[in-house]
Please model this.
Amino acid sequence: KEEKVRRAMEILQRNFDVVTVGDHDKFMNSVLEMTGWNRIEMPHANTFKGELNFTKKQVENLQKLLRGNGDLDFMDAVRVRYNGYLDYLE
Model:
């Protein structure tokens, strides 16, 4: 699992110039301000309009799968590495 997370972080760093973690609106507004571009409202497409209901057992099973395959470790590693790394642009 650790090797999978390490490899995923390497691929992320090698293939993406910008990674946003969290406050995407803040990042978008910074980019618009720096570039002078106008904001364009993008319609939400291909979205489910209904209600989703999960049992406690389903949520627990999903968490177990995410923990087991390294997804939670990857998300934590991304937060640690990239959280606030573009703050100097403000």
In short: The mean pLDDT is 87. The longest helix spans residues 2-15. The chain is about 55% helix and 0% strand. Helices lie at 2-15, 24-35, 56-68, 71-82.
